[in-house]
Design brief:
Elements (H helix, E strand, L loop, with lengths): L1 E3 L4 H8 L10 H10 L1 E5 L4 E3 L7 E7 L2 E5 L2 E6 L5 E2 L1 H6 L6 E4 L3 E7 L11 H51 L7 H28 L7 H31 L3 E5 L3 H11 L5 E5 L2 H11 L3 E5 L6 H7 L5 E5 L7 H6 L5 E4 L5 H17 L15 E6 L5 H13 L5 H21 L27 E7 L3 E8 L6 H12 L12 H10 L3 E7 L3 E9 L12 E5 L1
Parallel strand pairs: 10-11, 10-12, 12-13, 13-14, 18-20
Antiparallel strand pairs: 1-2, 2-9, 3-8, 4-7, 4-9, 5-6, 5-8, 14-20, 15-16, 16-17, 17-19, 18-19
Length: 557
């Protein structure tokens, strides 16, 4: 082994930025990491890791080819730049699980685990979280690759069995052939035998690569199923880790003069890895934006006078207008910003729900991942989904939803509200949302008792689930015809006590009124012309005597 020092930190940073391991590292973090890396060279046959020996370093392959050995048997080879070595012993703080040997002249980047403590103190914890998330992703990726190899091995065996069955049938036929074809039969058998040996050799090669010699098909299938279960179990964690990892070191500005709301924001975002800065006035925040800029701005409705200036100076920066709970007080304000895409109202008396919704709002916008109510529920919540193409089928699907929630012991009050909400959502999605290529409605002139058939491409999706704290129901349509103008009109008419639809034909406004009136909070996610998702949430910990809800809105266009 030789230590090399010909590369500068900047050159190292540029090189490792192409590695899969570092794809989600912010530039600032990547630069600090590059300063801790050393370059080492190994000769042909030299060991980088030795099975059973302590290891406290991560290695990243630069050039050359390596072989991995377990108990002296070769199980795989590595030759792609950026391949990582030693991660399991670092994660588990244990001895190396395999030996790794150079097959030619090999160079690697090396970082000692102790170097992690040299990371800047104020960002050390976020860095460790990021490292753990990335290492988890590496583990899942390797499990996926192993599972793919196992499936290919099983497919090869099935191919062999099929070939053998074909051979048996062929032999039965050839037994009745005349003697003059006996030599042809011998030749055919010889050729197939050679094919058999070739396939068997390939199987053995696959088995050696995955250290599964002498594994019969029952054991192989069980092994493959076990790996699939692990991958499925870890996938939600990896998805969550990827979303959280992308938010590390992102800058979020909050402009709110209310000390209580400032505290809630700090509690909500303090553990997410984002850099939160709080300002008590619009002038302070504008000065902060001039100084350092931000990835996202949250601004209280009382500071709305600053919105126009911010959008004029930083037009591409996302901004969320935070409203109070009394929507009727802000109808004129919504009209002032017809092109503004994000509005979120808050319930000042519901701290837990405010924290949950604020955290999710920030993640949705920073990650540009708006659809799906799973983001608001705790990890592991089971989600049921069904496609609906006929108006006559909605009652059956709603009944299935009620039975699903009833099996968990959900109270009848919530079941009734969920039923009402699902019915109105589905009627809006089936009768009001569909439009032709020119945006003209297709079915909203029909009575709500008229049958409507949708094509597979027009199908609406009903989804529901609960984590024991929140119960969620959503309906998604593939049209994206719900507009802010319709929503604002609905808000005006309902808060002014006007009717928004007729009893026989319903109408989007009346349906929206029923959805909001029966929910604790409602989220509208709209990709104009493409997709609309309306999500209704119910807070299950509400007291039995608390029959009146105080709905809040989240609008994402």
């Amino acid at each position: 082994m030789k230590a090399l020092s010909t590369l500068t930190p900047a050159e190292i940073q540029k090189e490792i930025s192409e590695y899969l391991f570092f794809k989600n590292f912010p530039a600032e973090t990547l630069a600090a990491f590059a300063k801790m890396l050393n370059v080492q060279s190994y000769e042909n046959g030299e060991l980088i890791l030795t099975q059973g020996q302590p290891n406290q370093a991560l290695y990243f392959l630069r050039h050359g080819e390596l072989e991995v050995l377990v108990d002296g048997e070769i199980v795989s080879s590595l030759k792609s730049p950026g391949e990582i070595l030693g991660e399991m012993s670092v994660i588990n703080k244990s001895e190396a699980m395999a030996s790794v040997r150079a097959l030619d002249i090999v160079t690697v980047f090396v970082i000692q685990e102790s170097n992690f403590n040299d990371f800047p103190e104020e960002k050390k914890q976020a860095f460790k979280v990021l490292m753990n998330q990335v290492l988890t992703q590496v583990l899942v990726l390797r499990l996926d690759r192993t599972n793919d190899r196992a499936k290919k091995f099983e497919a090869t065996n099935k191919e062999l069995q099929k070939t053998q069955e074909n051979l048996k049938e062929l032999n039965k036929t050839l037994e009745n052939e005349i003697a003059r074809r006996s030599q042809e039969l011998v030749d055919k058998v010889r050729n197939i035998s050679e094919m058999h040996l070739s396939i068997t050799a390939k199987q053995m090669n696959h088995a050696m690569q995955d250290n599964v010699q002498s594994v019969d098909m029952i054991q192989l299938r069980q092994w493959s199923n076990n790996i699939s279960e692990v991958v499925d179990l870890l996938k939600p964690v990896v998805d969550l880790s990827e979303r959280q990892g992308q938010n590390h070191f992102r800058r979020v500005f909050l402009c709110d003069g209310n000390k209580k709301q400032q505290t809630i924001a700090k509690l909500a975002l303090g553990g997410t890895g984002v850099g939160l800065e709080v300002f008590s006035s619009g002038e302070e925040m504008v000065a902060g934006l001039h100084k350092s800029g931000a990835d996202l701005v949250l601004i209280d409705v009382e500071m709305a006078d600053s919105v126009a200036e911010i959008k004029a100076r930083w037009p591409s920066m996302p901004l969320v207008l935070m409203l109070g709970q009394d929507i009727s007080s802000y109808l004129d304000l919504l009209k002032r910003f017809p092109a503004h895409p994000y509005f979120v109202s808050r319930n000042p008396d519901n701290r837990a729900l405010t924290i949950k919704s604020l955290t999710t709002t920030v993640a949705k916008i920073l990650n540009k991942d708006f659809f799906g109510f799973e983001k608001y529920l705790s990890w592991g919540a089971h989600v049921v989904e069904s496609k609906i193409t006929c108006s006559d089928k909605r009652a059956d699907e709603i009944e299935k939803m009620e039975e699903h929630f009833k099996s968990f012991g959900v109270r009848s009050t919530f079941l009734e509200q969920a039923h009402t909400v699902a019915e109105e959502m589905l009627m809006n999605a089936i009768y009001d949302a569909p439009a032709d290529s020119e945006g003209k409605p297709l079915f909203n002139h029909l009575s709500r008792i008229d049958r409507v058939e949708l094509s597979a491409e027009q199908a609406v999706t009903l989804r529901y689930g609960t984590d024991g704290v929140l119960l969620a129901v959503s309906v998604t349509d593939p049209f994206g015809t719900l507009t802010k103008k319709v929503l604002q009109s609905y808000l005006e008419k309902n808060y002014n006590g006007e009717e928004t639809g007729t009893a026989d034909k319903g109408g989007a406004g009346k349906g929206l009124h029923m959805i909001v009136a029966n929910s604790d909070f409602v989220v509208f996610n709209v990709k104009p012309g493409k997709k609309t998702e309306v999500i209704s949430f119910f807070q299950l910990e509400r007291n039995k005597d608390e029959t009146e809800t105080k709905p809040t809105f989240h609008l994402f266009f």
